[in-house]
Write a structure and sequence with these properties.
Order of helices and strands of chain A: EHEEHEHHEHEEHEEEHEEHEHHH
Radius of gyration of chain A: 19 Å
Shape of chain A: globular
Distance between the termini of chain A: 27 Å
Largest sheet of chain A: 7 strands, parallel
Strand content of chain A: 15-25%
Structural class of chain A: alpha/beta
Oligomer: homodimer
Mean pLDDT of chain A: 95
């Protein structure tokens, strides 16, 4: 993707001060890459909590063009200092593992819920004019009552992570409504691509699949019929960039889907196709995951598309091929 | 109201161990009064946080028939010990001031959100069969998008209290869905009656109105046209008792309204009528309250009525008269 100063849609980022929490993660690092291309001053904040998404390898190619500050979003005084003077905040830091949220609910609450409230209080205090884009999640809908799921679908989170992400997002909408903060939330489907964790199945089924096929081993498909969408990271980044500049999105929570839904089996086959070989085994869902699984999920993101003209552009085969190519070169950085 | 062992609907409470958090508050103390009448072993837990609802005067008449344990629901080990062996939990402890939630959001989060998650983890561990009724609130809907508001109405909390109560309730529903806990939430409208705080306007406009008329002073009506419902505490108690015994309500969040909605002016006039005199002044909404006000609110509680046969029985004139009578005798205990 061309990321240059010549893309006039994003001229608003030129010389802008932009802070990204979760900045060494999958989406944060890809956002940073676009933003330095636009001439922004980029500050990446990451907690480097083990087993979260932060990985210095994600910014190896832009390391000398960004500022990196290791700090946890729960650290009030660090955040107060870092937020002051920023023009944009991409608020991506999160605990994203559904299973971990059930086993360590307090930690999930602290990061996804309490730290969001604190961050917004700090935004009010030191950067009230800043544009904020919060990374929400389709997880807050829980098991769909109808498909595709639009923003009016009831919220019935199916795990602790979903409850905390629901509350974290609601603070953003509230601080818009009450204090006029320029913030919005994008309810993301599964995002994948170069830079994602592939060490294990903690955050996303696809990561461990990628690792296994690259290592020439079989990967496991749990269940298989459930439909999911996958959004390539560059398409997610585009949505964040557009949302940050589009004032009309302020105060809204907007779905961001991933184009065509596939069954897990269909995704497994696409991965093997993209890799030029590989094999997988179907397994029953592990019990502790089954009880928090949400079944089929298909997103209706018509509202965001209409508001902004955004649409995903990288199809699954291409996205998987680019991911495999990246990890073949950089595998050891991600194990 | 007759509260005796002869009410066969509530035979399930006879000799049952019942814990009530927020037990010295308006609803908690009135629940306790009914429950001791049924022959339950009642444990009242209250933090006695200043300016919350707890007041020992509320249980003066039943003090020797209940056990009182002063402890905060945030106190994990105290809660673990107290919950063990209980058959019922009425989970009423909360920070209920909307304005305080904006000025001290961390405290509201700790009590209404984080402590709920912790309490449910403890229920799983030490009392997994216990029946739980959580005190929810209509505040989580925010400004109504239509009237009357049913349970399918979108959740868009208008203050920090609403976000935290939304999350607190969602944990209850989640722990039902995932772990099979026998819990439900009642989304209450404004509850009033003998035992409510009347010292100031922190929790409920009616409290300070009562105080002013009893002191022969004018009270202030902010705005005046907004419609609100008032539910007399005994009717609220009846809803809690029924919900605790009705297995079909488990996993549900159910609206509890207050019968006829009145404008604030209509309520002010009813209060003066019930008092046999008094006067009030209309005022503009104070700015800090205006921005979190939700406008008209009318509840559709048809689902709970259909499921249980419950309906409010104490009309406004009667409820106000009984409240005034109570505070005339006990005023000094509430100032």
């Amino acid at each position: 993707m061309v990321t240059s100063r010549s893309d006039s849609r994003f001229a608003g980022f030129r010389d802008a001060r932009v802070m990204i929490t979760g900045g060494l993660g999958l989406i944060g690092s890809a956002l940073a890459r676009r933003l330095v291309g636009f001439g922004a001053e980029v500050l990446l904040v990451d907690s480097m909590v083990p087993d979260a998404g932060g990985n210095p390898a994600n910014i190896a190619d832009i390391r000398d063009r960004v500022r990196v500050n290791i700090a946890d979003i729960r650290d009030r005084e660090a955040m107060r200092h870092l937020l002051a003077g920023q023009h944009f905040l991409f608020d991506l830091a999160a605990q994203t593992s559904h299973l971990d949220s059930m086993n360590a609910p307090d930690h999930d609450l602290a990061v996804n819920c309490a730290a969001q409230l604190q961050l917004l209080e700090l935004c009010r205090a030191v950067a009230p004019e800043m544009a904020v884009v919060h990374a929400g999640t389709r997880q807050i809908y829980g098991r769909p009552q109808y498909l595709p799921v639009d923003e009016a679908h009831p919220l019935r989170p199916a795990d602790v992570n979903g409850v905390n992400k629901m509350a974290g997002e609601a603070y953003h909408l509230l601080f818009h409504d009450v204090y006029g903060l320029n913030t919005r939330s994008l309810r993301l489907t599964n995002v994948y691509g170069p830079g994602m964790r592939i060490r294990d199945a903690r955050q996303n089924f696809l990561g461990i699949w990628l690792r296994r096929v690259l290592e020439g081993a079989a990967f496991e498909v749990w269940g298989g019929e459930q439909r999911r969408e996958l959004l390539f990271v560059e398409d997610a980044v585009e949505a964040f960039l557009i949302a940050a500049l589009k004032r009309e999105t302020a105060g809204q929570a907007l779905n961001i889907g991933g184009g065509e839904p596939y069954s897990l089996l269909g995704l497994a086959e696409a991965l093997i196709r993209a890799n030029g070989g590989g094999h997988f085994e179907r397994r029953e869902f592990p019990e502790e995951r089954k009880r928090i699984d949400i079944g089929d999920f298909v997103t209706d993101d018509g509202r965001f598309r209409e508001l902004t003209g955004w649409a995903p552009r990288v199809d699954l085969d291409d996205g998987l091929a680019r991911s495999l190519k990246y990890y073949r070169r950089h595998l050891t950085d991600y194990l």
